[in-house]
Automatic annotation (TrEMBL):
InterPro entries noted in UniProt: Peptide/Ni-bd, SBP_5, SBP_5_dom
Annotated Solute-binding protein family domain residues: 64-497
Organism name: Undibacterium curvum
Entry keywords, A to Z: Signal, Transport
Pfam family, one: SBP_bac_5
Keyword Transport annotated: yes
Protein name (record): Heme-binding protein
Family: Belongs to the bacterial solute-binding protein 5 family.
């Protein structure tokens, strides 16, 4: 069991603690904003740490608004200078690192948060958001980082300037259409240098931010408790509602209320799919986002909520997350990686063995659509007309393997062109879902005559091994951190190898197109580049694109203000529990 700080809720027998009960599907990792890239940890972090901007909860289309800033950033006429003015009187939650003193948020804390992403020891998956964009950032890259940091200056490069206690100025080498989105990501949340230095390499186990909650009791990989932060400024809700009647009702319910609305969030780690659904039906959880598709019949019938559940007041909502499921293959692996025709043929054959239609019908129960490119529908830059040239075709897959020397032995299993045995290893999650997926890929490989074994592990351990290049292939998914195509295509950008680019794909032409596209706003010219980049992905097959899910979300009758957001991972600060509603349910 781990605890952080002195987080607790004062005893008050006259008033029950209002608690939100939710679940996550994978264990947490490090609560260091510069490192966290899994959905579970990001979900927690966005409630502990605060970026300068955040999304309006209800506004559609998406709208950014000031979070810790007094107003939206001041942007120069040439689009390269951002002046950011913080509110005074925002404080970090109490922690031993501050020596018993209240610690006010300062512009230097955001400068430090951005600077840390350049630390080569961290291998931050978020460095792509700033690397090569900030003026003078070559002084922060690689071996130069340690020397620059030792200077002890708050303003270490021209691109990151602390003007005064509450003013930060960021200068870009060229205009960046996505830069405001970047300033709203959890990775850019303010961190205090004192905390990072006080806890050292254990700082990810002691998160200290300025957000609406702080970490309370924590049982690793089992349960986390977030406690309303007593040092939080508790802003009044002032969001906009769309024309949707449901959103307008939520806006009316929230109008003028200070956030957050609950005192505690109990977060359970539930990896097994059946346990998630049964837990919800047993009223252990207030909502269940993304009902596991293979078990959707437990709550749905003919695409609708079961009548018996509807009578209980349970509600069903369908939501399209900005999410892509895929398999990545390690391009540096001696068996599966490489850019020679024989290696490309092997990966192409594996991709041709994947059957979208069967996967969606059998495993996803229709709650998904086939992914043609990395971009999910509604992501800026998505092309609904684009179609992957790599479709299910086991005959062609086998012909490719025959042509490039992967001959079958007497046992009918294939060998490498040099005659050595061919066997693949796929990392999978140690869960029922993982085992089901194993059988899908076992059958796919049997069609090709390829032996495959499966190494089951925790999600966090797979990520750790992947960053070191020690995973040959695995299934993964990506949810947009900001709603633009850049956020997806960066996953295969060569310089991101060892960070977000787990496939370790490094194709010069792809890199050039990505660098060109990231300087463009959405439009026909950039979409042409995106199409070309997608074709390179299908040509070299570092990924096998699977699906974009349709999320079936269910909520209990006592849960108020629930609405999924396309980019924010959680809506916990806006949720409320209707008085006595749960107790009155029969």
């Amino acid at each position: 069991m781990a605890r952080t700080g002195n987080a607790s809720i004062p005893a008050n027998p006259a008033k029950a603690v209002k608690t939100l009960n939710v679940l996550v599907t994978t264990p947490e990792s490090s609560f260091d904003p510069a490192l966290a890239s899994d959905i579970t940890t990001l979900s927690v972090n966005e409630n502990l740490f605060e970026p300068m901007l955040r999304y309006d909860y209800l506004a559609r289309p998406l709208k950014l608004k000031p979070n810790t800033l007094r107003a939206m950033p001041e942007i120069s006429a040439d689009g390269k200078t951002y002046t950011l003015r913080l509110q005074a009187g925002i404080f970090f939650s109490e922690d031993a690192a501050f020596g018993g003193k209240r610690r006010e948020l300062q512009a230097a804390d955001y400068a430090y948060a951005i600077q840390r992403m350049y630390d080569p020891a961290l291998k931050s998956p978020w460095l792509f958001m700033f690397e090569g964009k900030l003026q003078g950032d070559e002084a922060l890259r690689g071996d130069a980082y340690a020397k620059t940091v030792k200077s002890g200056k708050q303003s270490v490069i021209a691109g990151i300037q602390v003007v005064d206690r509450y003013t930060l100025r960021l200068r870009l080498q060229a205009p960046d259409p996505n830069f405001l989105f970047i300033l709203a990501t959890p990775a850019t949340g303010a961190v205090a240098r004192e905390v990072m230095e006080f806890y050292g390499n254990q700082a990810g186990n002691h998160p200290v931010g300025t957000g609406p909650f702080r970490l309370g009791e924590w049982k690793r990989s089992f349960q986390l408790n977030l406690i309303a932060n007593p040092d939080y400024r508790r802003p009044l809700f002032d969001g906009e509602a769309t024309q949707d009647a449901y959103s307008r009702r939520i806006a009316e319910s929230l109008r003028g209320k200070s956030l957050p609305l609950v005192q505690r969030i109990r977060i359970s780690v539930v990896e097994e799919q059946q346990a998630r659904v049964l837990g919800f039906l047993n009223r252990e959880f207030d909502c269940l986002e993304q009902v596991p598709a293979p078990l959707s019949e437990m709550v749905m019938r003919d695409g609708q909520l079961k009548p018996e559940l509807s009578k209980q007041g349970i509600q069903l909502r369908l939501f399209s997350p900005l999410q892509t499921y895929y398999v990545w293959m390690n391009m540096e692996d001696p068996v599966l990686g490489g850019y020679t025709p024989d290696k490309i043929a092997l990966r192409r054959a594996i991709a041709l063995s994947y059957n979208h239609q069967q996967d969606i019908a059998m495993m996803e129960k229709g709650l998904a659509q086939a992914a043609q490119s990395p971009l999910a529908p509604n992501v800026i830059g998505y092309d609904p007309e684009f179609r992957s040239p790599v479709q299910f075709n086991p005959v062609l897959a086998n012909a490719l393997l025959d042509k490039f020397g992967y001959q079958r032995g007497p046992d009918q299993y294939r060998r490498l062109p040099d005659g050595q045995p061919l066997e693949l290893t796929m990392h999978t999650q140690a869960s029922t879902t993982g085992r089901l997926r194993d059988e899908v890929w076992r059958k796919n490989m049997e069609m090709l005559g390829i032996r495959i074994s499966f190494k089951s592990d925790k999600h966090s351990e797979i990520l750790r091994a992947a960053r070191l290049g020690k995973v040959q292939m695995t299934e993964a998914n990506w949810v947009a951190d900001f709603p633009d195509g850049e956020n997806f295509f960066q996953l295969l950008y060569g310089p991101n190898t060892g960070r977000a680019n787990y496939a370790r794909f490094n194709l010069p032409e792809y890199n050039r197109l990505f660098e060109q596209s990231r300087r463009m706003a959405d439009g026909p010219e950039r979409r042409t580049l995106y199409r070309q980049m997608s074709l390179y992905i299908h040509a070299y097959n570092p990924w096998i694109l699977r699906t974009h899910p349709l999320s079936a979300d269910v909520q209990q009758p006592w849960l108020m203000n629930f609405q999924r957001h396309p980019v924010d991972f959680t809506n916990w600060r806006y949720l409320d529990i209707a008085p006595d509603a749960k107790q009155n349910m029969k």
